[in-house]
Structure formats: structure tokens, C-alpha cells
Write a structure and sequence with these properties.
Strand order of the largest sheet of chain A: 1-3-2
Order of helices and strands of chain B: HEEEEEHEEEEHE
Oligomer: heterodimer
Helix content of chain A: 55-70%
CATH superfamily of chain B: Mog1/PsbP, alpha/beta/alpha sandwich
CATH architecture of chain B: 3-Layer(aba) Sandwich
Number of strands of chain A: 3
Distance between the termini of chain A: 70 Å
Strand content of chain B: 35-45%
Order of helices and strands of chain A: HHHEEEHHHHHHHHHHHHHHH
Number of strands of chain B: 10
Shape of chain A: elongated
Radius of gyration of chain B: 15 Å
Number of helices of chain B: 3
Number of domains of chain B: 1
Helix content of chain B: 10-25%
Amino acid sequence: MITWPSKLFILLFFLLPLGLTSGCATPPQSKAPLVADEVLANEDEIMLWQKSAEEQRVLESTGFIYPDQELEDYLNKVVARLQAHSSPVDLKMRVKVIKNAHLNAFAYPNGMIYIHTGLLARMDNEAQLAAVLAHEMTHSIRRHALRAFRRYKDQPAFLRAVEHTLSKTRGLQDIARFMGISGAMAAMSGYTRELEAEADRVGLEVMAAAGYDPGEALALFDHMITEIEQEGLEEPFFFGSHPKVRQRIENLQNLSDSGYINRGPRIKNSEIFLAKLDKLFLDNAGLDIRQGRFQAARRSVEKYLRIKPDDTRAYFLLGEIFRQRGQVDDATKAIKYYNQAIFLDPTYADPHKAIGLIHYKKGKRTLAKIFFESSLQLAPDSPDKAYIQAYLKLCAQNGEG
Amino acid sequence: MKKIAWIAFFIFAASYLSCANTGGIYQPSSYSFTIKIPAGWRKIDNNRYLFVTKESPFLQYVMVQNRPVSRSFRHTEKKLKTDMLPEEAAQIIVDEIASDNNILNFKVLDNTPAAIQGHAGFKILFTYNDKNGSKFKTLYYGFIKEDTFFNLRFNAADQVYFQKDIETFKRMLNSFQVIKAKSA
């Protein structure tokens, strides 16, 4: 049976133009055998690398990359540490972050790993990060893309598979179009069950060999499945898919039972991880608020507040989460957080305006007027000045309330 | 937005010869508004929105829509509510557009209250790039009346066409009339 990931690779190589600029794309030279028939680079792999480089160029020109060089350096140090304990392949693994609140990470065959802010924001420590990076790294180092491609390219069902794949790819999320076909495949459907299981097993070995607590891999996926189930998340990508995450948990549980998880030193590196990612937690919360994923946003902000308990913007965002969600008692909760933001920084205009809005909607025009006025005094050139002035005018027209 | 332009482009191309282009007051059968279409502009009425362009959807278009307040958006899980203030509705529209991964370098230039033929609403002016790097500018008006969200937007290539056709759009806006608050 031909699986979806393989179909997509077949599509990639037979339907997409191959005359692409290749430049720096050179497949890895193995210093030790990985899989007997996959050691040497050949035309298939060269094409695969060329296409990957082209897709990455498009993806990185779209403005989706999260601009935080310090964070990127940190992620690359973690992946270098993992690679030092992996198969000795001459393949430089690198990591970049994509501004996207969905749960996702994916690797290209040429060693480039992309990880979404949404997935990073769900992690608690460096060991959990290592679990995902080691899994993705295994896809590149073990040449899963090439193996999938070779396995199916000559099979008779090829044309039917291509046709079927075309119909499926129309449903890809918008961002997947920028990833290209191979990136979209890696990000959305993953590889075959066998290859994903291999990535689980080898990834766990590598993270353990690098000194990380392998139990954190299971902890991360347990956390994610709870979130997906409790909040009914419907996500398009591999790490946000309920069955795929469930499969990871089953694999890791089996490996745990067979002794993989109970060996070696146990590093979590929570403090450094949280310190490096603190800004990302808040930025990703902003993305979640924008998409109306208020529970996820709240978790990110609360995680941030555990690191920086006196941050005014974080309290303001908590207020925004409750005000915009608008359930019973949410206005009261919102005001509590806005007041905390004002307490920490009385010159912060945004929570003044937000409290004014809540009072205004409740018809409490006198109170609303006080907060709108203080907001304007604090930020006379605020972008929402025209709205505030309009509210003040209506407060004056409607009289006391 | 790009998708809309492509869909419109194909429909437009396919029906180019049969499109009405004489202008005049237009009342789509499935809508609850009337609007004056400028002479020389061609319309596409697909029961979900009224789409009007002069040369090509990639150069300029006006889109007019009435949709149920309760209808979900494509990119944000937030929903409009009948008791929302114009500013709150505007924020949801901004969030919907900003969450669309086809919209690159999205920048809100202006977001202010606006009266649309007497209805309290909002006006958002923004720019964005498409995947090919082309820059577009959009002027988006919206308001909620009963259980319907009305919106009118003018989208054009930023460099020339926005300035060239903005006055035509404003004349269309001034001709817009709600005849009953019923969603398409």
C-alpha cells in the first residue's frame, strides 16, 4: 500500500520542474554506513536537495521566520549537541523558527529543521526541545525522504497516487504552499509509520546519549495530547494531529517499557530554556489571541509570568484574553488583570482604554469616561485615538450611566 | 484575498463578454442592499459576494458582502457578535486578515470609526504583499446591522491603481443602501 508521504514525494519528483538552481545543495557523505543501500548520494538525492533548497528559499522570503538570532543560536547549539551523539554523517543540521501558533516541526532532507513558535511555547525545558529536534534530525540523517521516494517511485500505482495526491494537496494550509511540496509533506502528514517509529526510537537514543532526560519526550507528548483532547484542537500539522501524537506516545511508551528511557544522566535544563524563550511565549500568545485560541494564549502568558512575574504587558494580555473571550464573568477577570498591569506601570495606556471599553459596554459611561480620558492623557497619539474620542463624545451625549 | 482575486479572475475571464458593463443601480437578488456600479466596470455576483472590477481583479476590485454575524471566519476562531462595538468588529477583521498566511507584510495604516450611510461602523486602511512580492492597498468598511455584517472593500495595486480608482470606490460607497438586514 502506498502511503500519503510517499505519494507526495513521487509527486515532487515527477511533476515538479527539476531544472532548479542548486548552488550549495550537496548531499551528505557518510563516514559510516547508515543503511546499506543508501550510503551513496545519487541523482535522486541530489534532486531532493535541490528542491529542498529552493523550497527553503521561498519559505524564508515570506516573512514567516521568527526574528530572534539569540534564540536561533541557542536552538542550533542544542541540535549540535544532539548531532555530536548521532550517526557520524557529514550533514550540518540547522534550526529556524517559524511564527505560527500551530503545533509543528519538520525537517528537510538537507538538514534544515523548522519549528513553529506554537510548538516551542508548549515546551517546558530543553530536554523536551531535544526530543523534537532529535526526532526531526533522524528524518534527515537517516534519509527518510530518499527512502520513501525510492520505495514507491517505480510502483504501478504511481499515476493513481499522483492524481490522488494532487486532490489532497489542494487542501493544504496556506503556509504549506510556502513550504513547498516536500516541506508540506514533512510538516503535515509525516513519513510512513515505520519511518516515524524509527525517528522516535533513534531520536530517543540520541537525546539520551546527549545527556537529556528521555522521560521528557513522553512528558511533552502527554502534555500535547491532553491539550488537543481537552480543547478539541483541530490542527493541520503532524505534531498537532491527535492520531499522530497518540502514535508518538505509544511508541515512546513501548520504548520506555523496553528500557530505553531509564538510562544515562538526566538533564532538563529548564531555567536556560525558559530564559531563552520567554519573549517567544508572549509573542506566541499574541498569535493565539489573534486566532481566538484563548486557552492556549492564557497558558503561554501564565508560563511567561512564572519567569517574569512583574511584566505589565503579560497582565494586559491576560486582560485581553478574558475581555475578548467574553464569557460570563470574563469582564470582571479582565478588569482584575488590567488593574494589575496599571498597578505595575501606571503610565501604561492600553489597560486604561480596555477598562474604559468594558464600562462603556455595560453602560457605565461615567466610569468609562474616566478611563478613556486617562488613556488619552497617557498616549495622546495612540493609533486608536479616533475610537476613544468617539466614545468620549457619546459618553458626553448620553449623560450619566 | 489573493484567492478571491484568482477565483474572480477566472470567473471574470470566462464571463468577460457577458458581464454587464453599463453601470447603474444594482440590486443583487440574493442580497439586502443596492449599490451603483460605475459605468465601464464589470460585476461578478456569485451569491456570496458582489465583486466589481474595471480592468482586472489583480489591478483593482470592489467587493461588497453581507454575511451572517454568526458565520465563522477562515483564519481566526473569533466570531462577530450582534452587540459588538465597531472597534471590536474591526479588530476581528484585522485578526482574520493578519492570520491569513497568504497575506505578507500586513500593515494597518489606519483604523477609525466610520459612518456608512448612517450606520456606525469602521474603516480600515491597510497594505500587504502577496507571495510574488506585489504590494496591494485595501480600504475596508464594515458595520453590523441586526444579525448581518455588511462590508465593502476596495483593493488595488498600491502604486497606481489605488489612487486612480479610490474616488470611484467612494462614489460606490455613497450609493450603497441597505434595503433589509438579511444575510446572503
